[in-house]
From TrEMBL:
Entries under Pfam families matching the protein: MDMPI_N
NCBIfam families tied to this protein: maleylpyruvate isomerase family mycothiol-dependent enzyme, TIGR03086 family metal-binding protein
Domain Mycothiol-dependent maleylpyruvate isomerase metal-binding: 9-127
Name of the protein in its database record: TIGR03086 family protein
UniProt cross-references to SUPFAM superfamilies, sorted A to Z: DinB/YfiT-like putative metalloenzymes
InterPro entries on file: CHP03086, DinB/YfiT-like, Maleyloyr_isom, MDMPI_metal-binding
Molecular function as annotated in GO: metal ion binding
Length: 191
C-alpha cells in the first residue's frame, strides 16, 4: 500500500466535499466543537501547510501550523494547500523524523497516516455540516480506523496538554467501519 496515494485520495475526497460549500454556509457550526465551517476549513488549510512544513524540515515553530488563510476563495485555498502537501511528501521523507505540531516527532510515514485520518474525519464533518452524502471509500476508512485506534483518547492531562480529537464516544463493535472511526475521534455518527 502506498501511503502517499492514500493521502492524495483522502485530500481529493475532502476537496470534493469542500467544492460543494456555498458562501452562505461558512458560518454554520460543525461537529468540531467551537468551529464554524470557516474555522474548520482554515484549520484544514493550516494542517496541510503545517504537514508540508514538517516534511520540509521545519521544527520548533508552532506558527507553521497556523498559516491557513482562506482569502476570498476557500476552495482554492484548500486546493493550493493540498498541492503543497502532496508536493512536500513526494520527496523522500517517509522515513525521516518530522515534528507534528506539539505532539512530537514521528516518522514521515506515521505523520502521513495522521494526515489521512484528519482528511477523512474532517470530510465527514464538512459533509454533515452542509448536508451532503459522504463516502470516502472502504480502504480509506479501514486505514483511518487503524490510525485512530493508536491515538490517545480522553481529556488533556499534564503530560498531554492537548488532544488531537474529542474524547471517544461509545459505538457498537458491530457498527459500520465509518461509524466506529467517528466514535474513536469523538463524533456520534448520527449527528
Amino acid at each position: 500500500m502506498d501511503i502517499r496515494e492514500l493521502d492524495r485520495r483522502a485530500l481529493a475526497t475532502l476537496g470534493a466535499v469542500i467544492a460543494q460549500i456555498g458562501p452562505d454556509q461558512l458560518r454554520l457550526p460543525t461537529p468540531c466543537a467551537d468551529w464554524t465551517l470557516h474555522g474548520l476549513l482554515r484549520h484544514q488549510v493550516s494542517e496541510n501547510l503545517g504537514f508540508a512544513a514538517a516534511a520540509a524540515g521545519v521544527t520548533g515553530d508552532i506558527r507553521a501550523w497556523d498559516q491557513g488563510n482562506l482569502g476570498g476563495d476557500p476552495y482554492q485555498a484548500y486546493l493550493d494547500s493540498a498541492d503543497a502537501m502532496t508536493k512536500a511528501f513526494a520527496e523522500d521523507v517517509l522515513d525521516h523524523s518530522l515534528q507534528i505540531r506539539e505532539f512530537g516527532f514521528f516518522p514521515g510515514r506515521v505523520a502521513l497516516g495522521m494526515h489521512v485520518l484528519d482528511c477523512v474525519v474532517h470530510g465527514w464533518d464538512v459533509a454533515q455540516t452542509i448536508g451532503v452524502a459522504y463516502d470516502p471509500g472502504a480502504d480509506l476508512v479501514r486505514y483511518s480506523l487503524k490510525v485512530a485506534a493508536l491515538i490517545p483518547t480522553g481529556a488533556p492531562s499534564d503530560d498531554r496538554p492537548r488532544t488531537a480529537f474529542a474524547p471517544a464516544v461509545e459505538i457498537s463493535a458491530g457498527s459500520p467501519a465509518l461509524e466506529r472511526l467517528l466514535g474513536l475521534v469523538g463524533r456520534p455518527a448520527a449527528s
